[in-house]
Each structure stands twice: as structure tokens, then as C-alpha cells.
Design a protein that fits this description.
Distance between the termini: 53 Å
CATH architecture of one domain: 3-Layer(aba) Sandwich
Strand content: 5-15%
Radius of gyration: 28 Å
Strand order of the largest sheet: 2-8-7-6-5-3-4
Largest sheet: 7 strands, mixed
CATH superfamily of one domain: Type I PLP-dependent aspartate aminotransferase-like (Major domain)
CATH topology of one domain: Aspartate Aminotransferase, domain 2
Number of strands: 25
Length: 969
């Protein structure tokens, strides 16, 4: 189609800019929308929506969104400041896996708050993700070095769920003990015990929680065990020599997981050195604020032989087409989309942004800096212990790192309250014990304040704070050059810029990913999350200190219920996949509460997200696939057949609406009615809510439960692969089965789905601000514009690439699928070739080969203006011309700019150029690129080689020396 001259089509009196936030969030202005509608043959947006969205699900004109009217940016900042001031920050010494930390300002401003880092998508297109992949490789290396295990993943969701992932890994990896029993030390974190109990029960794993003494009694082994989980240090603060426990477990054929504190491992003997198979934990205290519970990057490291079973993502090193080292996601990347119900994990969103912050914290401080921080923390804890002992208090554990368990018979409650009045939060363990945890921010003045609570008047410094040899670390770590090169702020600042310059994020161009909704993350929405009153709250702080946050949670919850048409919502799930699991567990618990234990079948359309099937498997359900009709909708005849034969076993059907094929299916209410008539529940995946808000409510047109992706529809940024928030919303009958309190030990209550009650609470102000800024009219306008933009792109490209599926009136929803399969048959040019060539045009590719292999799924979102939409259309049309050149024989596909894309500056400036096309055709295929050009840092990456030759850590020092010597020669 090319860049079109439309000066004669745009009214001269364009609407002037206003301070209405919706006009800044929504890209196409009124005149642009009028042009786009005219191109589609419509005179109004209402007419387009009437044709696109089935009337059976539409809200009536009198049944719009009952939400507060939109407010200005300054009003929202003032409102959030008022909420923040209702939170009361204290010196946090509760511990239990959450610690205050100091985020270096250079990292906070230039990474955590930088759109170059937080607006990037998951690095599935590695050539344009080299910066964040390199940072994630550093995260993996830090974890590997500190745990003493050779392979680590690129982050998980939180420590408690990471332990459950380790339990599942131990079960599938154990070839000796095939029992369904795992033994967990009672000194594990209470939130971990809660989550493991609930998740394990869903998949038939028996959990034995017990004290793990040095010599494990024979009685514990009766019945077998595929694995053991221990905590280092324990929840009580105890540091034990776990080598005997590990050896005993291995003698019995059990695998061993150690949940470890990452900072403590700079001083403590790492799990890999005493034989642990798996280490998990949280990287939160590496510069990531507590955020009232999250987001925080969890980690998992494994011994050799288990690396191909790792859940989530693993960054590996391969080479590009020029033989240069290049980073990519390896092995299990999106494995749930391939293996579906056979997947071993449903994790899709991880915590990449927070993992990168933790990695850069390690780079900034280096090994000696980390050791100094840990030593100081330990010395302060030892000083506090000595001071309390001098006053006659009993410190229970002789060996500890940062946390003390103090015995105060009958006085614990009073002392905890007195400490709170003095401005310090400590942990109430029981009536006779309290816990006190030191961290990076603890000072001697903190200890003096605390000692006044215990009526002690002096600090007593211990003569010796050395840890016993059996538990002390005596090996070096993080010897790689990267951890020694960036001590000054200027060096660190330039390193962060160097990394981000390699990547393509929303601050450079649109990211037209179907099903992932990469839209504007407004700066005003992001600003408050760094405020101390939001960032420095402990998730287990007393409720009286968090009234502002809880008001924000209540308001956001009520708004989301209004938008979806459901009665109750839990914000606890910290990823969309976890929201899916929480919703399915609620359905399962509901059926069981009615004595309907036979309902274990989950029906899932063939086109569904792969996480749907993986989540169903992890909920203990059997997956049955429902076929797709020729028009891309659910095959109703196949559904009827399955309900007729298996109706008594059906627990639920999982639908995505609009469908994953990008259309509004007209029969969705009929599908819901059919499943309800069979006694099942209807789960509507909320991944595509960007096409529904203000137009339809899944809780009203047949859904019983839905999860939402706040990191898609509600403007929380993807962060290069996380954080995410996946709230689960339900109708009233499922409300009792929503995720419970993670600190509850009552096995009769619903278990938690994440370690903190409100999950990744630290980023909830973003979604709250978005909804408050847009208001009901702005939200509906955004939805309508998203549908308009998708149809504009589809219509503009239809003569060049067939649109695979359309819905009512030949229209699509908020995304469309471009079908390249026939072109591939005719020319050999693949969808991947087009994806890589788009990099040369300055674009991230649309979703590649999902949900249909050999296609591209495009979602432009409402945030992209007409000029950017046309720039993308121009690129796709130009690429179609290059495909035509292959078909015409101008060049073979192997010699074409498509197969050789992307092209680097180094390649284009080399002395020799032997390709059939010119350098200019490679780098500047359209004129607009002369003004601004993104240069990919590497050429196309060899994925197969990266999987066969797995390298997943930073280069060793000797490699660096060898490279330097070669350069000198």
C-alpha cells in the first residue's frame, strides 16, 4: 500500500490537543479515525462496532461501565499521593523472605524506571533482545555462582511457587523412588508450606511436613519419598549443616531441594557444594524493593543432568550467521505452547525486569561488595543477639545469618506491639517467641531503638562473629570480568545504556504482537511505584500500617469486577498463568464441595493458549481438545459429541474471547449454555479483554470465572518478560474458593496461589491509575479504537497477505492473523523470514506461528497513531514485494534480503559485499528509515546450535584473558 498522501482527506480544522488523558493514550485522533473508518466503508465507530461485535453479548446503552469519571494526570497523582500517605513505613525487621534493600539510584532511574527496559517484550525475537538477554545471562551466572550449581534459569515468579516448581521437577526427575510423596522441613517459610500443600494436593502429591534433624529417623522414610525440601537459613533463622540430610536423602533415592537466601550464600556454604540437586529462592534483596509483596524475581538452579527439565526460561549462548556469539532463550522457552497438557510448567510471564535489576545490583557491587553487605548484616544480627543475651533473653539458635528467634515466655505480643510503637516491625512467631531480621538498611541506631523495647541500654559486640567451618563458604564466586568492571556510576550508567541500545522496545516503535497487547505504559502511571510509601512496605506488615494500599486494592478490585461483570476478584495471582491455575482450582474445589468428585475433565478449544492446557494439567484435570470449525470458531458439533459422551465428567471449558483466532464468535453464549447444561463451569480467558472493555462483560454473557492480564489490557508493562499480574474474577458461587491467606496454616481454608496476599502489589498502582485516568468513556473508546485499528491493518494488508479468519461482516476483533502458508509453498519464504526482515524496517515482529503455524498474528492496539500504523503497513507491503522478487526469480530465497535478515551495521560496512542485492536495499528498503534507523547488534541466530551446545553463564575469566591476548596480538 505504501505511505499514502492524504492531505486532501484530513480536515483542515483538526481537533486541537486537550488535557484529556484518553486523547494522549489513544493514538489515532478524531480525524485519523474518520479516515480509517472511511477506508473500511463506515461513517461512524458505532456502526463498525455494531457489525463487528455480536449483539448477543453487547452491553445495552443503559448498561455501560459504572466507574468514576476520568480525572487529569495531576488529579491522579494527588489521589495516589493521598493513598500513599495513608501507608505508614516502618523499619522492617519481619524477614520471612522479604527484606529492605537499597536500590542504587543509577539502577532505579536508568533501569527500573526506564521505558527502554520496562516496555520491552519477552525476548522471543532474540536478535532485538540482546541487551536484556545479556543481563539475564548475568542473573543466571550470579545464581549459579552463589548456589554452587552449574545451571540456573532466567527467573521464576516468587520463592514459594519456585519451591513448588522444584517439587514437580524432583518428581519427574526421580527414576529411583516413584512414590508421590515429598518431605518438607517445618522450618521452611510458612507461605511456602501453604502453597506447596495446596498445589501438591491438586496433582496427587502427598506432603509430609516434619522437623528434619541431622539424623533422619527411619520412620520418616516409611512410604518412600521422591524428594526433600529444606530451608537455608530456616524461617527461624537457624543455619544448619545440611550435608548429612542431603546424604541421607540420596542414600534413600530422594532428590534434595534447598530454598536458600541469596545474600547469605556469599558467606554460607552453597547448596551445590554439599550435594543439593536443586536450589531455589528469591533475588529480592538484591536491590529490588519489597513492594508490599512483589514483583520479585525468584530463582532456580540445578545440578548437571536436570537442565532440560528446568521450568520457565533459560538464556543460552549460540552464534549468529556470522559466527559471532549471540544470546537466545533455549530449551524450555514457551514449552507449554508446544507440549500443552503434557507441559510440566504453565509459567509464561516471569520476572525478567526484576531479575535484570538484581543482576545489575550484583554487577554494581561485585563479589566483594556483596560479601561486605552480607558480613555487615550478619555482624549486626550477632551484635543484637549478644546484647539480648546480656539482658537475659534466650536467643534460640546458636548459628544464624541475619534472623534471630528470641524466646520471651508470654511476652511476645507485648514486645511486638512495643516495637511497632517505636517504629520497628518484628515478627510474632507465637506467644513465647518473636523473630527479628537484619538487612542491608539496618544500622546500629536501629539496634539501639529495638533494645529500648527490650529495656536494654547498651550494645554488646561479640568477640567472634565467624560462622562455623561446617557451614561457612570457603570458595570464590563471581570471578567473571563483568562483575569487576563497573564500579563507578559513570561506567555503570554507560553499561546500562549500552545494553538497552541493543534492544527494541516500545520507546522505539510499535510492537504489533497478537494476543500480547503491547500498548502505552504512560509515565504518569509508572511514576508512583517508586514512592517509598508504596515500595517499602513489608507484605506481612500490620494492617493498620497499610490502609492506603488496601484502599487502592479495594477500589481496583471493585472497578475490575464492574468491567468484567463478576462478583469477586483476587489480585493475588502474579502472572496470567497463575490466574488460570487459580481459576481452575476454584472450579475444582467448587465441584468437590458439592461431592462432585468425578468432574475432572477440562475442555479446551484447539486454538487456545498453550498455558490453558498446561494450567489444567497442573490443576489435576484431564484435557480434552475441542476441534476448530473452518471459520476458526469452536466446532459446535464436536463440542456436542464430547458433552454427550463425557458430560458427567466435565468440570469446565476454557474459552478465549474474542477467540485466539482474532474473531468475535457469534455462538459464545450457546457454548456457555451447553456446558452449563452439562453441569460444567465456563472459564473465559481474559487475554483478549482489550476487545471487550465497555462493550461486553464475560461474567454476564456466560462466564463463571476469568483471569485478567494487567500486564496487557491494563497497562502494567511487560518488562522484557515480566512482571505480570493475573487477577482471577469469579461469580458469587466460586468466591469461597478464591486464593487464601498465604500465612494461614489452617488446612481447611483455601490455599494461596502466591507468597503475598496481594501478589505483585507494587505494580497495582499502574492499573489503578490507568482506569482512573481513562474513566468509563475513555475505556470504551480505547476498546473501539483497538478494534478499528486491527480492521484497518487487516483491510490494508488483505490484498497482499490473506487474513486467515474473520468474524461477523468479514471483520476481525482487535487482532488479525496474516496467512503466509501459500506464499511459503510457492516461494520458500517463511513467516520467520518475514519476522526477521521486519527488524531491518525497525519493527518487532507480530506473533509468529501462533495459534496457526506459518502465520503472523498482528495486534496494533489503540495506542499506536495512524502514522505508525501506516509505517508498519508500508513495511509489510514492501516485504511482500521482496517475496514477489523471489517468486519472479530475481534472487533465490537463500540469497534474498528476507533469508539474510536482519542486517547489522558491521555487515553493511564490511569491505566486501557478495550478496545479490545492494547494501542500500538491505538497510534502507523504505525512505522513512533514513530519518531514524535501528541497528540490530547481531545477525540471525542459530537456535539449534544453541540447544545442542548449551552455554548459560557469562564467559569465564580465562576466556576473557584469551580474547584480550588475541586482541593485543
Amino acid at each position: 500500500m505504501g505511505q499514502r498522501n492524504r492531505s486532501h482527506l484530513v480536515p483542515k480544522s483538526a481537533t486541537p490537543p486537550s488535557n484529556r488523558f484518553a486523547d494522549r493514550h489513544i493514538g489515532p485522533n478524531h480525524s485519523a479515525r474518520a479516515f480509517m473508518l472511511g477506508m473500511l466503508g463506515y461513517t461512524s465507530l458505532d456502526d463498525l462496532i455494531d457489525d463487528a461485535v455480536p449483539s448477543e453479548i453487547r452491553l445495552s446503552g443503559f448498561d455501560g461501565l459504572r466507574l468514576p469519571a476520568s480525572r487529569s494526570e495531576q488529579q491522579i497523582l494527588d489521589a495516589l499521593r493521598n493513598l500513599a500517605q495513608r501507608n505508614h513505613t516502618r523499619i522492617q525487621m519481619i524477614g520471612l523472605g522479604y527484606y529492605d534493600t537499597i536500590t542504587p539510584a543509577v539502577l532505579r532511574r536508568n533501569m527500573l524506571e526506564s521505558p527502554a527496559w520496562y516496555t520491552a517484550y519477552t525476548p522471543y525475537q532474540p536478535e532485538i533482545s540482546q541487551g536484556r538477554l545479556e543481563a539475564l545471562l548475568m542473573f543466571q551466572t550470579v545464581v549459579e555462582e552463589l548456589t554452587g550449581l552449574p545451571v540456573a534459569g532466567a527467573s521464576l515468579l516468587d520463592e514459594a511457587t519456585a519451591v513448588m516448581e522444584a517439587v514437580l521437577l524432583m518428581r519427574r526427575a526421580n527414576r529411583i523412588d516413584r512414590s508421590n510423596r515429598v518431605i518438607i522441613d517445618s522450618d521452611c517459610l510458612p507461605q511456602t508450606l501453604n502453597i506447596v500443600r495446596g498445589r501438591a494436593a491438586a496433582v496427587g502429591i502427598d506432603v509430609l511436613v516434619t522437623d528434619l534433624p541431622r539424623e533422619i529417623p527411619e520412620s520418616i522414610w516409611q512410604g518412600g519419598a521422591f524428594g526433600i525440601v529444606a530451608q537455608l537459613p530456616g524461617a527461624s533463622g537457624a543455619v544448619r549443616d545440611l550435608a548429612p540430610v542431603t546424604a541421607a536423602a540420596h542414600d534413600r533415592g530422594a532428590l534434595v531441594t534447598v530454598a536458600a537466601d541469596l545474600l547469605s550464600l556469599t558467606l554460607l556454604r552453597p547448596p551445590g557444594e554439599f550435594g543439593a540437586d536443586i536450589a531455589v529462592g528469591s533475588a529480592q534483596r538484591f536491590g529490588v524493593p519489597m513492594f508490599f509483596g512483589g514483583p520479585h524475581a525468584a530463582f532456580m538452579a540445578v545440578r548437571s543432568g536436570l537442565e532440560r527439565m528446568l521450568p520457565g526460561r533459560l538464556v543460552g549462548v549460540s552464534v549468529d550467521a556470522a559466527g559471532q556469539p549471540a544470546y537466545r532463550l533455549a530449551l524450555q522457552t514457551r514449552e507449554q505452547h508446544i507440549r500443552r497438557e503434557k507441559a510440566t510448567s504453565n509459567i509464561c510471564t516471569a520476572q525478567a525486569l526484576l531479575a535484570n535489576v538484581a543482576a545489575m545490583y550484583a554487577v554494581y557491587h561485585g563479589p566483594q561488595g556483596l560479601r561486605d553487605i552480607a558480613s555487615r548484616v550478619h555482624q549486626l544480627a550477632a551484635t543484637l543477639a549478644e546484647s539480648l543475651r546480656a539482658e537475659g533473653y534466650a536467643v534460640v539458635n546458636e548459628v544464624f545469618f541475619d534472623t534471630l528467634l528470641v524466646r520471651v515466655p508470654g511476652a511476645a505480643r507485648g514486645l511486638v506491639d512495643a516495637a511497632e510503637r517505636a517504629g520497628v516491625n518484628i515478627r510474632l512467631v507465637d506467644a513465647d517467641h518473636l523473630g527479628i531480621a537484619c538487612d542491608e538498611t539496618t544500622s546500629e541506631e536501629t539496634l539501639r531503638i529495638l533494645l529500648t523495647v527490650f529495656q536494654a541500654d547498651r550494645l554488646c559486640r561479640p568477640s567472634d562473629t565467624a560462622l562455623p567451618a561446617a557451614v561457612a563458604r570457603d570458595t570464590e564466586f563471581m570471578t567473571q570480568p563483568v562483575f569487576h568492571a563497573y564500579r563507578s556510576e559513570s561506567a555503570m550508567l554507560r553499561f546500562l545504556r549500552e545494553l538497552s541500545d541493543k534492544d527494541l522496545a516500545l520507546d522505539r516503535s510499535m510492537i504489533p504482537l497478537g494476543s500480547c497487547t503491547m500498548k502505552l505504559n504512560a509515565t504518569v502511571e509508572m511514576e508512583p511505584i517508586s514512592w517509598r510509601e508504596f515500595a517499602s512496605l513489608h507484605p506481612y506488615a500490620p494492617a493498620s500500617q497499610t490502609t492506603g494500599y488496601r484502599q487502592l486494592v479495594d477500589e481496583l478490585s471493585s472497578w475490575l469486577c464492574e468491567i468484567t461483570g463478576y462478583d469477586r476478584i483476587s489480585l493475588q495471582p502474579n502472572a496470567g498463568s497463575q490466574g488460570e491455575l487459580a481459576g481452575l482450582l476454584a472450579i475444582k474445589a467448587y465441584h468437590e464441595s458439592r461431592g462432585d468428585h468425578a468432574r475432572t475433565l477440562c475442555l479446551i478449544p484447539q486454538s487456545a493458549h498453550g498455558t490453558n492446557a498446561a494450567s489444567a494439567a497442573l490443576a489435576g484435570m484431564e484435557v480434552r481438545v475441542v476441534a476448530t470449525a473452518d471459520d476458526g470458531s469452536i466446532d459446535l458439533d464436536d463440542l456436542r459429541t464430547k458433552l454427550a459422551s463425557d458430560g458427567q465428567s466435565v468440570a469446565a471449558i476454557m474459552l478465549t474471547y474474542p477467540s485466539t483466532h482474532g474473531v468475535f464468535e457469534e455462538g459464545v453464549t450457546l457454548v456457555c449454555d451447553m456446558v452449563h447444561a452439562a453441569g460444567g463451569q465456563v472459564y473465559i480467558d481474559g487475554a483478549n479483554m482489550n476487545a471487550l472493555i465497555g462493550l461486553a462483560k464475560p461474567g454476564q454473557f456466560g462466564g463463571d470465572v476469568s483471569h485478567l492480564n494487567l500486564h496487557k489490557t491494563f497497562c502494567i508493562p511487560h518488562g522484557g518478560g515480566g512482571p505480570g499480574v493475573g487477577p482471577v474474577a469469579v461469580r458469587a458461587h466460586l468466591a469461597p474458593f478464591l486464593p487464601g491467606d498465604p500465612l494461614s496454616s489452617d488446612e481447611q481454608t483455601q490455599p494461596a496461589i502466591a507468597a503475598a496476599r496481594y501478589g505483585s502489589a507494587g505494580i497495582l498502582p499502574i492499573a489503578w491509575a490507568y482506569l482512573a485516568l481513562m474513566g468509563p468513556d475513555g475505556l470504551r473508546e480505547a476498546t473501539e479504537t483497538a478494534v478499528l485499528s486491527a480492521n484497518y491493518v487487516a483491510a490494508s494488508l488483505a490484498e497482499h497477505y490473506p487474513v486467515l479468519y474473520t468474524g461477523p461482516g468479514g471483520l476481525v476483533a482487535h487482532e488479525c492473523i496474516l496467512d503466509l502458508r501459500e506464499l511459503t509453498k510457492e516461494t520458500g519464504v517463511t513467516a520467520e523470514d518475514v519476522a526477521k526482515r521486519l527488524i531491518d524496517y525497525g519493527f518487532h515482529a507480530p506473533t509468529l506461528s501462533f495459534p496457526v503455524n506459518g502465520t503472523l498474528m498482528v495486534e496494533p492496539t489503540e495506542s499506536e497513531n495512524l502514522a505508525e500504523l501506516d509505517r508498519f503497513i508500508e513495511a509489510m507491503v514492501a516485504i511482500r514485494g521482496e517475496i514477489a522478487d523471489v517468486a519472479a526469480g530475481r534472487w533465490a530465497v537463500a540469497d534474498s534480503p528476507l533469508r539474510n535478515a536482519p542486517h547489522t551495521a558491521e555487515q553493511l560496512t564490511a569491505d566486501t559485499w557478495e550478496l545479490r542485492y545492494s547494501r542500500h536495499e538491505a538497510a534502507y528498503p523504505v525512505a522513512g528509515l533514513r530519518r531514524t534507523k535501528y541497528w540490530p547488534p547481531v545477525r540471525r541466530i542459530d537456535g539449534v546450535r544453541g540447544d545442542r551446545n548449551l552455554v548459560c553463564s557469562c564467559p569465564a575469566p580465562e576466556m576473557f584473558v584469551a580474547t584480550t591476548e588475541e586482541g593485543a596480538r
